[in-house]
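Thread: sanity check for a docking pose with zinc ion

Original post by kr_44:
Hi all, I'm comparing my docking run against an independent structure prediction. Below are the sequence and the ligand SMILES. Could someone generate the full complex and paste the structure tokens? I mainly care about where the ligand ends up relative to the chain.
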Amino acid sequence: MHREGIDDNNVLPEDILCDFCGKAAWANDVACIEGHQGSIVCGNCLSVAYSELVLAGAGAPTEEKCRMCLEHREEPVWQGAIDPIASICRRCTKQSSAALNKSKKWDWSKPIES
Ligand SMILES: [Zn+2]
Ligand SMILES: [Zn+2]
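Reply from moderator J.T.:
Ran it for you. Here is the predicted complex with zinc ion included:
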């Protein structure tokens, strides 16, 4: 998400906040990836979501729409820690992880099974 009251024509790294933990990921050199309508998930949250949803097969479906793709799917989601609670679906978790993993801009790798 974008910090409230920012200048849309001059968005600064510190204005870009993760929808799931509320931290300014980009400004702190943490990988982040954008979903629909300016939603953001940072690499830290994505690592946790990937570990839980993909590696551990955990998580439960909700009635909530996924914050990243804005769709409701009958599949487990991972939820963030800040209000309003944001959900990310397993599909977006996988797609975002694959994209960040390949990104040359960020040094982020997918969590691996321990
Ligand atoms: Zn985050
Ligand atoms: Zn999604």
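Residues 66, 68-69, 71, 89, 91-92 surround zinc ion (ligand 2) (CB under 6 Å). Hope that helps with the comparison, let us know if your pose agrees.
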